[in-house]
Design a protein that fits this description.
The complex is a heterotrimer of chains A (499), B (160) and C (281). Chain B is mainly α and 160 residues long. Helices cover 68% and strands 0% of the residues of chain B. Chain C has two domains: 151 residues, Bordetella uptake gene, domain 1 (D-Maltodextrin-Binding Protein, domain 2); 118 residues, Periplasmic binding protein-like II (D-Maltodextrin-Binding Protein, domain 2). Chain C is globular, with a radius of gyration of 19 Å. The model of chain C has no long low-confidence stretch (mean pLDDT 80). Chains A and B meet through helix 8, helix 9, helix 17, helix 18 and helix 19 of A and helix 2, helix 3, helix 4, helix 5 and helix 6 of B.
C-alpha cells in the first residue's frame, strides 16, 4: 500500500501542467547540451540556477534533473556521429557507435541508444522506487579501501576496451594516469606537474583532453585522409532490423543492471557503469569479434548502463543529502536556497518532492525517446554532410565549449596541443579510449589507496579485511587472468602458424 | 585482441615508442623532485615515478621491437610537408581563436576560425557563397552564446 | 558560498537599480578570480566576493600570488560568516569536546580527522585546534566535503570540522552528532550546540567570513555606493534568514573594522600555517 500511495502521489504531482512543461524544457535543453560538444550539464545548470529560485522546489528539481539525464542521452549522439564524446561516460559510445556510423548505420546506432536508454530509465526508476533506502545504505558502506578495489577492477576492465594491441593499450593507460597526476595532490597539497602555471595546478579538465584528442585529433586525421564525409557507405535503413532487436535486448538488460548498481556510488560510479557494461558485454557476447567494428551490443549495453546510472545517482542526494557528482551538488544548492535540506528526512518531510521527482524521471525518459527517435533521421543525415562544412563547425563548438569551462582561453591552447597528440596517436594506430578512462581513474586510484592507508596507519591488510574490498580485488585478479588468456593463446597460434 | 597488434602497429612501434620515451622521461625527471615516501606512506612522487618508469620500460620494448622488425620506410620530406600543412592549419586556427577571442569578440573570432580552418580542406575555396555561409553560422552561433547564454565575451569589439 | 553570493547579489541589485551578474571563475583556491578582479578596471563594475581563504590563508600557502591581499583591493563590506561545526558519527562514544580531547590523547595521534581540502579554513581550524589543545590528530584529506561526510556517517572517520550547511542534513537526520561550533558565538541554526570556547578553550574563534572587494584605485564615491547597497542588503531580515539557513550569520561592520579584521586574520592564520609547515608550492 505504501508504494501504491506514493506512486500515485508522485504521478499526480508530475503530471501537473506546470511540471510537465518544465520537465519537457529540462530534457529538451539537456539533449541540446549533450549534443553540443564542450557544453556540459554543470555549466548549464549553473546558468539556469537563478531561474529556479522563483519556482516551486519540486518543479525546479524536475527541470534540473531533466537537463542532467537528457544530457546523457544527447552526449552519445556526437560520440556516435563524429567520434566526439560530449561527456566522460560517452567515451564508450565512440567505440562501436562511431564504427556503426562509418558503416552507414548511424541511424540504427542512435535508435539503439535511445531505446536502450528508455528501457534502462524505466527499470531504473522502478529500482529507485523499490530499493532507494537499501541502495543508499549500500553506498555508505563504501570507504576508501572499497573504492580503491572498485577502481582497480575498473582499470583492468578498461583494458578490455582496446581492440588493437594490448601492449599499446597498456601504454595508453600509463599515459592517461600520468596526465591525471597534473594538479594539486589531495594528500600533500603539493602542485604536481604544474610547470609554475596556476591554471595547470588545477589539473587538466577532462573536456580539454576529450575535445583535443577525440575532437581535433579526429578532424586532423580525417583531413589527412581527405574524407569527403563521415560515412562512406550508403546510409541503409534508419531503424534496427529484427536481428538487431534480437541482439540488443540482453545487453540492454545487463547494462541496466550494472548501471543501476554502480550509479549509486558517489564519485565515478556512473562513468564506471558505462564501460563496465561494455567490458562485460564484450566478454559475454557470442558476437565479441565484432566489438570495436560496429557491434550493436557495443552501443546498447553502455547506453543503457549510462542512463540507469544517471537515474540511480540521484539516490545518495535524495536519501542521504550527499551529492554523487558536481551536478548533484548544484541541485543540493538549489534545494538549500529553496529552504529544503536534502537528507534522510526529505522522504518523510517532503514526500511530494521525492515521489514527484521520481515519477517525473520516468515521464522525462518517455519524453526523451519521443523527442529523439524522430530526430534520428536528421542526425543520420548529418553524417552525409560534406566534411569541409562540418569540421569548422565542430571546431567552433569545441573552442567555445572549452572556453566556457573556466571562462578563459588557456584550455583552448591546451586543447590544440592535445589535438596534435591525438592526431599523432591516430596516425600511429594507437587507441585513445583507454587513455581517457585511465586519466579519470588513475588519480582516483591513488587518492583512495593513500587515504585507506592513512586511516589504517599504514596497515596494508585493510584491503583484504574488508569483505567488499576483498571480493572486488578477487574479481579483478580473475579478470586479469581472463584478459591475458586469449592474448597468450593467440600468440601461441601465431607461433604455430609461422612454423 | 592481440598482444602486439597488427602490421600497422608493428610498423609504428618506433614512433609510439618515441612518444612513450618523451612522456616517460619528462614524467620521471620532474617526478623525482617530489618526495617519494614508502608504499605504506606514499608521498606525492611515488606513483608518478612508478608510472613514468613503467612507461619508459614500454618505450624501450616498443623501440626495440620496432627496430627488430626491420627498417621502417620513412615517408619523404615532401610527403610529410604535404600532409603536415592541413593539420597545422587546424592547429593554427584554433590557437588564433584562443589568442583573439577576447580582443576581437566572439563573432569575428569564430568567423576567423571557420574560414582559416576550412582552408585545410582542398574542397574549400574562398568564394562568396561559402564566406557568406560562414558569416551567418558564426554570427548566429555567437549571438546565441553571448546574448542568450551569457558567455562572458564581447560579441564584437569595435576599436575605440 | 555560492548561495551567499547569489542571494546578496540579488538584493543589492534591487538597491542599486542595476542587474548584478554572478560570474564563476573557479580555480587555484580562488586566486584566479581574485587576480581577475585585481587587474580589472577600477570603475566599480567588477567586484570580488572574497572569503577568508583568499586573503588570510592563500598568502601563507602559496609562495607567489598574483595579487596582494592588502594592496590590491579595497574592502567594500563584510557580509556574513560561516563557522565550522565539529561532528562525530552518530554512534560515536564522543559526546563533547572533553571526550574528544580525551580520546585523542589516548589514541596518541591516530584519532582520524577528515579534512575537506588542504589549505582551507576547515583544515587550518584543525591545526589551530591541535595547537590550542595540545593533542595531535591523524589528518585525512578529501577532495571536497561530500566524500568526507560519507566516511564520517559510515563510522570510518572519528570526527570532522564541517561547514554547517554541508553537515546539516545528516545532523537533522541523526547520522551525525554535532559537539561544538568553532566561532566565538553559537550558530543560530544550531542553538543547542556550545562553542569550542565555551567548552574550555576561551578565545577560540575560527570561521570563514565573506566580503565584497573592489580593485585598488576605485573611486571613493563608488565604493561608498556599493558599501551602502551591501549594508542595506544584509540588514534585510529576509536575507539574514537565508544566510542563517546556510548556518552562518550576517556580520555588520564598518569598512575600517573589516580592514582590521583582514589584517588580524592574515596574521593569525599565517601563524597557524607557519607552525603547521603547510605549503602548496
Amino acid at each position: 500500500m505504501y508504494y501504491v500511495d506514493n506512486v500515485v502521489l508522485g504521478l499526480s504531482t508530475a503530471l501537473s501542467l506546470g511540471n510537465l512543461l518544465y520537465c519537457f524544457l529540462g530534457v529538451f535543453l539537456g539533449t541540446a547540451i549533450g549534443v553540443l560538444p564542450g557544453l556540459g550539464p554543470v555549466a548549464t545548470i549553473a546558468m539556469l540556477l537563478p531561474i529556479t529560485y522563483g519556482l516551486d522546489p519540486t518543479t525546479a528539481l524536475i527541470m534540473l534533473a531533466g537537463i542532467y539525464y537528457g544530457a546523457q542521452y544527447g552526449g552519445s549522439t556526437t560520440a556516435i556521429l563524429i567520434n566526439l564524446p560530449g561527456e566522460s561516460s560517452a567515451v564508450v559510445a565512440t567505440l562501436d557507435g562511431h564504427q556503426m556510423a562509418r558503416n552507414g548505420r548511424a541511424g540504427v546506432a542512435l535508435a539503439t541508444a535511445a531505446i536502450g536508454s528508455f528501457v534502462a530509465g524505466t527499470i531504473a526508476t522502478g529500482v529507485i522506487v523499490l530499493f532507494a533506502p537499501i541502495l543508499a545504505g549500500f553506498a555508505i558502506q563504501f570507504g576508501a579501501a572499497e573504492y580503491f578495489a572498485l577502481m582497480v577492477l575498473g582499470l583492468i576492465a578498461s583494458v578490455v576496451l582496446a581492440t588493437g594491441s594490448l601492449f599499446h593499450a597498456l601504454a595508453m593507460i600509463l599515459i592517461g594516469i600520468l596526465l591525471g597526476f597534473v594538479g594539486i595532490d589531495v594528500n600533500s597539497g603539493l602542485a604536481r606537474y604544474s610547470f609554475g602555471s596556476m591554471q595547470l595546478s588545477d589539473g587538466i579538465d577532462f573536456v580539454v583532453i576529450a575535445m583535443g584528442v577525440f575532437g581535433l585529433g579526429e578532424i586532423m586525421a580525417n583531413i589527412h585522409e581527405q574524407s569527403k564525409q563521415i560515412t562512406t557507405q550508403k546510409v541503409t535503413s534508419l531503424w534496427p532490423t529484427r536481428e538487431d532487436y534480437r541482439r540488443m535486448w540482453k545487453p540492454i538488460l545487463r547494462g541496466t543492471g550494472i548501471g543501476s548498481v554502480l550509479g549509486v556510488l558517489p564519485g565515478g560510479g556512473a562513468l564506471l557503469s558505462a564501460f563496465a557494461a561494455y567490458s562485460i558485454e564484450k566478454r559475454v557476447s557470442p558476437n565479441r569479434a565484432e566489438f570495436g567494428h560496429g557491434a550493436i551490443e557495443g552501443i546498447a549495453a553502455p547506453e543503457s548502463a549510462n542512463n540507469a546510472g544517471a537515474q540511480t545517482s540521484f539516490i545518495p542526494m535524495l536519501t542521504l543529502g550527499i551529492p554523487s557528482n558536481a551536478v548533484m551538488a548544484m541541485m543540493v544548492g538549489a534545494l538549500i536556497i529553496q529552504g529544503i535540506q536534502p537528507g534522510p528526512s526529505v522522504i518523510t518531510e517532503n514526500p511530494t518532492l521525492f515521489w514527484g521527482l521520481i515519477a517525473s524521471m520516468w515521464i522525462g525518459n518517455l519524453m526523451l525517446v519521443v523527442l529523439n527517435l524522430p530526430l534520428v533521421g536528421m542526425w543520420a543525415k548529418l553524417a552525409t554532410i560534406p566534411y569541409y562544412f562540418l569540421f569548422p563547425a565542430i571546431l567552433m563548438f569545441c573552442c567555445v565549449g572549452v572556453f566556457s569551462l573556466e571562462n578563459n582561453n588557456f584550455g583552448i591552447f591546451l586543447m590544440a596541443g592535445f589535438g596534435l597528440f591525438g592526431y599523432a596517436l591516430k596516425r600511429l594506430g594507437a587507441e585513445p579510449a583507454p587513455l581517457l578512462l585511465a586519466f579519470i581513474l588513475g588519480p582516483m586510484l591513488e587518492e583512495y589507496f593513500r587515504r585507506a592507508l592513512l586511516i589504517s596507519r599504514g596497515d596494508l591488510s585493510v584491503f583484504v579485511t574488508s569483505p567488499i574490498s576483498a571480493t572486488l580485488l578477487a574479481v579483478a585478479a580473475i579478470l586479469i587472468v581472463i584478459v591475458l588468456l586469449p592474448g597468450v593463446t593467440q600468440k601461441r597460434e601465431v607461433v604455430f602458424k609461422e612454423d | 585482441m592481440k598482444f602486439w597488434g597488427d602490421d600497422v602497429l608493428k610498423q609504428s612501434a618506433i614512433g609510439l615508442g618515441l612518444i612513450y620515451l618523451t612522456l616517460g622521461a619528462l614524467g620521471l625527471a620532474i617526478g623525482l623532485g617530489y618526495p617519494m615516501g614508502s608504499v605504506a606512506r606514499m608521498g606525492p612522487g611515488f606513483l608518478p615515478i612508478v608510472v613514468s618508469s613503467l612507461l619508459l620500460a614500454f618505450a624501450a620494448i616498443s623501440i626495440f621491437k620496432g627496430l627488430a622488425a626491420g627498417r621502417p620506410q620513412l615517408p619523404s620530406v615532401q610527403l610529410l610537408a604535404k600532409g603536415a600543412a592541413p593539420v597545422m592549419t587546424v592547429v593554427i586556427s584554433v590557437v588564433t581563436f584562443a589568442a583573439v577571442c577576447r580582443v576581437l569578440g566572439l563573432f569575428p573570432s569564430t568567423l576567423l576560425l571557420i574560414l582559416m580552418s576550412a582552408t585545410a580542406s582542398p574542397e574549400f575555396a574562398l568564394k562568396p557563397k561559402p564566406i557568406a555561409g560562414a558569416v551567418i553560422v558564426a554570427g548566429t552561433f555567437s549571438y546565441i552564446f553571448v546574448k542568450l547564454l551569457g558567455l562572458p565575451l564581447p560579441y564584437i569589439n569595435m576599436p575605440g | 558560498m555560492d548561495v551567499v553570493t547569489r542571494v546578496v547579489a540579488e538584493r543589492m541589485s534591487e538597491e542599486l537599480g542595476q542587474p548584478i551578474v554572478v560570474e564563476n571563475k573557479p580555480g587555484a583556491a580562488g586566486s584566479i578570480a581574485a587576480e581577475y578582479v585585481a587587474q580589472s578596471e577600477p570603475d566599480g563594475y567588477v567586484i570580488l566576493m572574497g572569503q577568508t581563504s583568499h586573503f588570510a590563508i592563500n598568502p601563507g600557502l602559496y609562495s607567489t600570488l598574483p595579487y596582494d591581499p592588502i594592496e590590491s583591493f579595497i574592502p567594500i563590506s563584510l557580509l556574513a560568516d560561516a563557522p565550522n561545526v565539529v561532528v562525530v558519527p552518530a554512534n560515536s562514544p564522543i559526546k563533547n569536546m572533553a571526550d574528544l580531547i580525551d580520546a585523542a590523547r589516548k589514541a596518541d595521534g591516530s584519532l582520524t580527522l577528515a579534512v575537506s581540502s588542504n589549505g582551507t579554513v576547515s583544515h587550518l581550524t584543525g591545526e589551530l585546534l591541535e595547537t590550542t589543545t595540545g593533542v595531535t590528530f591523524n589528518h585525512i584529506p578529501y577532495k571536497g566535503a561530500a566524500p568526507a561526510i560519507v566516511d564520517v556517517v559510515g563510522g570510518r572517520i572519528d570526527f570532522m570540522l564541517s561547514s554547517i550547511p554541508t553537515a546539516l542534513g545528516q545532523i537533522r537526520a541523526g547520522g551525525l552528532r554535532p559537539i561544538a561550533v568553532s566561532a566565538d558565538k553559537r550558530s543560530p541554526t544550531l542553538p543547542d550546540v556550545p562553542t569550542i570556547a565555551e567548552q574550555g578553550y576561551p578565545g577560540f574563534n575560527a570561521g570563514t567570513w565573506y566580503g565584497l572587494f573592489a580593485p585598488a584605485g576605485t573611486d571613493a564615491a563608488i565604493i561608498d555606493t556599493l558599501t551602502d547597497a551591501a549594508q542595506k542588503a544584509i540588514a534585510d531580515p529576509e536575507i539574514r534568514a537565508k544566510l542563517q539557513d546556510e548556518g552562518g550569520d550576517t556580520l555588520i561592520a564598518t569598512r575600517d573594522e573589516f580592514r582590521a579584521k583582514i589584517k588580524a586574520d592574515l596574521e593569525k592564520w599565517g601563524e597557524v600555517i607557519r607552525i603547521s609547515g603547510a605549503t602548496v608550492n
